[in-house]
Write a structure and sequence with these properties.
Helices cover about 25% and strands about 25% of the residues. By secondary structure, it is of the alpha+beta class. The structure holds 2-oxoglutaric acid (AKG). 2-oxoglutaric acid (AKG) binds next to strand 4, strand 10 and strand 11.
Length: about 290
């Protein structure tokens, strides 16, 4: 027995490349977190400095928003991730994927690790937490079971403006939609998915916003394939590897130190995350 997952669940993750649904927060806790997220939207509707708020919601939110760093350190969540990745855990990025009610925003079929500069590692997992009702109608994610067992396949950039991904990237191979499993989650539930799993999501045809938070976990052993080391927030165990620059959780919401660290990280990640793109990758270009 693991700390949170059963051996059947860890085996299922290895075989299928995902686990769903897992109970994390109560409905009330999920509602409270949603309110805190929506309060930030109200408070920072004009952005922060030269950035729109969405910049911090979409990448590296854990650097400047204590709430996101706090959610990423929830012991029950870390127990589940530890059962997959082992006792030493870093958070690489916290990201909010919000689809307004009745909008066409989608996510194309892709494998997360394609542009992250971490190679094809098995030591990365995403926890995706629902803070609204994430039904099929609301545009939940869908997964192709077992697709993580292949290598990273070629992707092409679409830069489609309705695509929530940084470059609208999608796999350049056939995907059989009939094989897809829908990641329907009630508020407070989460799924876990492997960095090479084929996944996508459809438009939000429901009458509520669809709010999800993706937390990218890696182990300290994951190596970056450029000379720039990447940044990770140690959330469990120890990082003795020297592959990562460790960053502390933010002390202050959008503090001066936090914002300058955010800029430093963005500048260092930019060359990896925009490599090969023929248009500007907005989220990674200041
Ligand atoms: O929220 C979505 O619809 C997609 C999120 C995603 O692709 C991810 O978390 O890796």
């Amino acid at each position: 027995m693991g700390k949170n997952l059963t051996p059947e669940q860890t085996n299922a993750y290895e075989e299928q490349g995902y686990l769903l649904p897992l109970d994390l927060f109560s409905l009330q806790e999920a509602f409270d977190y949603r309110q805190e997220i929506e309060n930030l939207e109200t408070q920072y509707r004009n952005g922060v400095g030269e950035y729109p708020l969405n910049q911090f919601f979409r990448i590296n939110g854990q650097i400047v928003i204590p709430l996101l760093a706090q959610i990423a350190q929830t012991p029950k969540l870390l127990d589940a991730v530890e059962d997959i990745l082992g006792p030493d855990l870093l958070v690489w990025s916290c990201e909010l994927f919000i689809k307004e009610a009745g909008t066409e925003k989608t996510v194309s079929w892709h494998q997360d690790l394609t542009y992250w500069g971490m190679g094809e590692t098995d030591d990365e997992v995403t926890a995706w937490i629902a803070f609204s009702d994430v039904s099929k109608a609301a545009g939940c994610m869908r997964f192709i079971p077992g697709s993580h067992k292949q290598r990273i396949v070629p992707h092409h950039d679409t830069f489609n403006e309705d695509n929530l991904l940084s470059r609208g990237q999608e796999v350049a191979v056939e995907v059989n939609e009939d094989d897809a499993v829908y990641d329907e989650l009630r508020p407070g539930q989460m799924s876990l998915h492997h960095g090479r799993l084929f996944h996508a999501s459809g438009p939000n045809k429901s009458d509520d916003r669809r709010i999800g938070m993706a937390i990218r976990f890696v182990t300290p052993g994951v190596e970056h394939n450029s000379e720039n080391k990447d940044f990770g927030m140690l959330v469990r165990g120890a990082d003795k590897g020297g592959n990562w620059i460790n960053v502390a959780p933010p002390g202050q919401l959008f503090g001066t130190h936090e914002l300058s660290l955010y800029d430093e990280i963005l500048a260092k990640q930019s060359s990896t995350l925009t490599a090969g793109a023929e248009q500007t990758v907005g989220l990674y270009t200041k």
